[in-house]
Amino acid sequence: MLIKKLNENYQQDNIILLLVYLSSCKGKLLFTYRQIGKIVNVREILAKNLKENRQRLGITQAELAERASISTNFVAMIELKHKFPAPETLDRLAAALDVQLFELFTVPATAENTMERFRKIILDDLDHAIERAVDKAIDKRFKNGQMIR
User: Fold this and answer.
1) Which residues fall within 8 angstroms of residue 16, CB to CB, at 6 or more apart?
2) Helix (H, G, I), strand (E, B) or coil at 106
3) How many domains does the chain have?
4) Residue 39, φ and ψ in degrees, nearest 5
5) Residues 6 or more apart from 146 whose CB is under 8 A from it?
6) What is the CATH number of the domain that holds 15?
7) What letter does residue 103 receive in the DSSP assignment?
8) Helix residue ranges per DSSP H, 9-110
9) Short-list 84, 9, 18, CA closest to 45
10) Is the N end or the C end of the chain the one with fewer CB atoms within 10 Å?
11) pTM over cut 0.70
12) Domain check: are 134 and 97 in the same one?
């Protein structure tokens, strides 16, 4: 359900999502996001967004815990990046913060990310153009297996 919601709400300007994998075994975090040029730990993203959204509403960890039907200690552990909630808990946290689930995992676009994305697009285009030019030159020099001078 979490992966479906993230994919439905994927926004290219905010985050580049290459791989999302969640293992529910013992609450271990096995999510990986790849943002242009670096791996971003999803625990860090969730912790930051959870705390920012909680503070935006002006509520304490205890109030958020009560709204989401979890312990205050668990909210603190999430915000400290020590724990990662199950998908059902993530749904309740998002509802308690009055945000969509994907908003707990978005990374704001920065000028650096945007420039790096453009750089990659331009380099890819150049690679394809050079490859086509080389292929064309080879085809022109070799016709029917014969080298033409």
Assistant:
1) 33, 34, 35, 36, 117
2) coil
3) 2
4) -85, 135
5) none
6) 1.10.260.40
7) G
8) 42-57, 61-68, 72-79, 87-97
9) 84
10) C
11) no
12) no
